[in-house]
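My main concern about presentation is that the manuscript never shows what a single data entry looks like. For the editor and my fellow referees, an illustration may be useful. For illustration, here is how one protein appears when written out as sequence plus C-alpha cells:

***
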Amino acid sequence: MTPIPLSLYIHIPWCVKKCPYCDFNSHEARQEVPEAQYIKALLTDLESELPHIWGRPLESIFIGGGTPSLFSAEGIDKLLCGLRERLPLRPTMEITMEANPGTFEQERFSAYRQTGINRLSIGVQSFNDQHLKALGRIHNSDEAQKAAKIATKAGFDNFNLDLMFGLPKQSIKQALDDLQQAINCQPSHISWYQLTIEENTLFHHAPPILPKDDLLWEMQQQGQALLAQAGYTQYEVSAYAQKNKRCQHNINYWQFGDYLGIGAGAHGKLTMPDGSVTRHNKYRHPEKYMQNALQGEPRSNEKLLHENDLCFEYILNIVRLKQSFTKEDFEARTRLPFTSIEAKLNKTIGDGLMKVTEGRYATTKKGWAFLNDVMEQFL
C-alpha cells in the first residue's frame, strides 16, 4: 500500500487584535506572550504524539495562528531546532509561517529566513484603508505594500498574499484594484477568497452590509480572468499559484493526506498501522493547553472515522482541487474499497456534476460552479 504523506501543523494562538470575521482559535495578547513556556509545551506535545507517527517522514510544516510572527526569531529558531531533534526534516522541505503586515520588520524577517522558514503567508486581506478598518485589521495599505517588499528583501522568493473579496460595501472596481495591487507585489502565490460570515464571530452577531450575489459572481469572474492574465493558475477553489509554487502543505490536506496538529486548538488526522483513521483535537484555551501539554496529555478528544465519515471527508477535500482522482487514489487515502463511494459517484455523474475519463474522476464545469451540491451527494 502506498504510504500516506504526513504534514505537521503548529498553532500559535495569539494575535494583537481579534478580527470581527475571524472564527479561528485566536486570543488577543493583552500582556506579554509566554513564548518560552508555549514552545516547551509544543515540543512536549510533539513528543507525546511521536509513537503515532514513528518512522514516518514529514512532507511539510505550517506554522499558523493567530499571528505566529508575534514570536521572536529566536523563539522560532528554538522551535525548529526542537523539531529537528525529534524528527527527520528534509533540507528542502516547505516550511510556511503566517504573518500579518502590522508585525513586519526587516531584521526580524531576515532572521526568520535564517531559522529555516522558507515560505510566508501574509494576511493582507485588502489594500483599501476603508475596508481594512471595516475588517478590524491593525495595518494600513502602506504597511501591506511594505510587508511584501520586506519579505522579498529578506530572501523569501516563495510567499503567499491572503486577500478577500465581497467586503462590506465593496464595489467590483475596488475588488479588482485590491487584486491588481496584490499582483503588483509579485507574490508566488495568492489566496483570493470571498468573505463569509461564520458563527461565533462579531460579524455574525452584527452582520455588515455585503455585496449582492450577482455582484459577487461578477467580482469572481473578472478577478479570475485578471489572475490568469497575470500568470497565476487556479489549482484550488481559492488558491492561485505561479509555476511550481503551489502550497504543498495545503495540497496534502486536500488530497486527504495525514497531518499532525500541535498547539492550542490544533487538530489532526492520522492513519494508524491497522488502516483505521482517527482525528484528534488539542485543548483550545492557551493556558489549559499548556498545562495539559506539559503533563503529556495535550489531546482534548479523539475520534475514529467510520466509513461514511471517510467517504464524505475525502470528497469534501478532493473536489476543492482542480484535478482528477482515481479509484486507486481513493482506496490508498481512505483504506476503503471503491464500492463504498461508487454508487454516489455514479449519481453525481448522472446529474452532470462529475465526469469520468479513462478511470479518472473530476468535477464538470457545472460541478465546479456548484461544489456544495457535489458534497451534499456524499452526506
Observations:
- The mean pLDDT is 94.
- The radius of gyration is 21 Å.
